[in-house]
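Re: How this chain folds, sequence and tokenised backbone to follow
How to read it: Take the token row as a discrete description of the fold.
Start of record: The labelled sequence and token lines come straight after this line.
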Amino acid sequence: MFEQGLFITAELRVKPDYNLEQAIVAIEAFCQGMNSEPGCSMAVPLQDKSDPYRFIFWERYDSQEAFDRHFHEKHTQHFIQLGVTDLVQAFETQLVTQERK
């Protein structure tokens, strides 16, 4: 499905004083921006069915450099400045392959 790259799984929580519908609009806009970044082939926001204030982001970048650039993008800085969410945890992973040395 995907070639090797850097995969990010991030858990974010919408702050309790933030309107959930407005937060979802901001999250969707943020992910649209990520999907337009050079080197980002996937940015998908997933909302927890039992806790609507909890979101999981699945992201895939071509390289560490592409991921590092992500934090300097206008849409990323805008989303951070909005203060909509708190980052709970994040994981950087890679595909498991038989060819790994």
Summary: The mean pLDDT is 93. Residues 12 and 87 are 5 Å apart (CA to CA). Residues 20-35 form the longest helix (16 residues). The chain has one domain: 6-93.
